[in-house]
UniProtKB/TrEMBL annotation:
Residues 1-68 form the HTH merR-type domain. This is MerR family transcriptional regulator. Keywords: DNA-binding, Repressor, Transcription, Transcription regulation. The keyword DNA-binding applies. Gene3D superfamilies: 1.10.1660.10. SUPFAM superfamilies: Putative DNA-binding domain. One of its GO terms (molecular function) is DNA-binding transcription factor activity.
Length: 129
């Protein structure tokens, strides 16, 4: 099938499919006319890629995972390379979450301090004026 049909069957834009190919995630043969040709397994592969992207994995992570993937969702067979890649990604996500939580707490503290100093600096608002 050509890229347009794969796009229709998966709901993924053609430019995204070309990106997946460039990242080594989606193999494509070339016809005599130079057009990309995909086999029926490409539909499943694209669905797997989309699910893994939805889990926050990078295309580099997914390249490691796809050989261990089965089914649409996909299920992952616990090969050592896969587990190491997923643990690494999870660690990076945990670090990001911790940084964001610290930033959120600092911002909330600034807001509280600004509200307190604003109440102390200005007279109360009087509706009667």
């Amino acid at each position: 099938m050509r890229i347009g049909e794969l796009s229709r069957r998966t709901g993924v834009h053609a430019h995204q499919l070309r990106y997946y190919e460039a990242q080594g995630l989606l193999p494509a043969a070339r016809g005599a006319n130079g057009y990309r040709e995909y086999d029926d397994a490409a539909v499943l592969r694209v669905k797997q890629i989309r699910h893994l992207l939805g889990a926050g994995l990078s295309s580099e992570d997914i390249a490691y995972l796809l050989p261990c993937a089965t089914g649409e969702t996909p299920e992952l067979v616990g090969c050592p390379e896969l587990l190491a890649a997923m643990r690494s990604r999870l660690g990076r996500l945990d670090e990001r979450i911790e940084r964001l939580a610290r930033s959120r707490d600092a911002l909330a503290d600034y807001i509280d301090a600004a509200e307190r100093s604003g109440r102390e600096s200005y007279p109360p608002f009087d509706d009667a004026a």
